[in-house]
Specification:
This protein is 33% helix and 18% strand. The protein has 6 helices and 7 strands, in the order βαββαβαββαβαα. A hairpin with a 5-residue loop joins β5 and β6. α1 packs antiparallel against α6 and α5 crosses α6. The termini are far apart.
């Protein structure tokens, strides 16, 4: 069965979601990051998989549900860290980040029948998901990350390798406060939305 990979940072103030500050404090931004990570992990836990892996920069905490292997991220740029995550898989794998708490088990359930890769574009030009029927780290190495062209370059890399690509729905990452508001509005029952509501309530006092 498929391996589901979640690439994440430990939600510590000052280390995660720094583009949310301001308007949020580093501690508030970290609380939103933790809520998004918990939503993501619980969704992955509810998705059929042979293995679930958290590829983590930092230490795990009480937000980690059972059923996950935890492996440290390697050194290097994001492309190298994503490549290393796939290198640890010996069969089909789907990788996502911690920035899309609106994901559902339905979105993450892929079987690769009739295609070799699946690609989930993000609104900011990146990508929120990448699945490979036969993981090849070289498909990621050298792709410029965190730019408005990252997704286009990564998808073009897949096509150039002769892979049949299935496109997943476009989602919005949580990077800015505007992103946070939009994502929470579309995932009203998520822990992320609840965390954002609590912060708004505190700020209005």
């Amino acid at each position: 069965m498929i391996t589901l990979l979640v690439v994440a940072k430990e939600p510590r103030p000052g280390r995660v979601k720094t583009r949310l500050t301001p308007p949020f404090t580093p501690a508030e931004a970290a609380s939103l990051a933790e809520a998004a990570l918990e939503d993501t992990l619980r969704t992955v836990a509810a998705t059929p998989a042979g293995r679930r892996v958290l590829v983590l920069d930092g230490e795990s905490g009480p937000w980690l549900p059972p059923g996950f292997d935890v492996v440290p991220q390697c050194a290097g740029g994001l492309d190298e860290r994503l490549a290393a995550a796939f290198a640890g898989c010996d069969g089909p794998a789907l990788l996502i980040g911690m920035d899309t708490p609106q994901v559902t088990p339905e979105l993450l359930t892929v079987d690769f029948e009739g295609y070799d890769a699946c690609f989930g574009p993000a609104e900011d030009g990146g990508f929120w998901a990448l699945g490979l029927a036969r993981p090849d780290p070289d498909l990621l190495r050298g792709v410029p990350m965190s730019t408005s062209a990252t997704g286009a370059v990564q998808r073009a890399r897949l096509v150039a390798a002769g892979l049949r690509v299935r496109d997943l729905p476009r989602l919005r990452d949580v990077d800015t406060s505007a992103d946070a508001e939009a994502v929470a509005a579309g995932a009203a029952h998520s822990r992320f939305a609840a965390a954002l509501t609590r912060l708004h309530a505190v700020g209005s006092r």
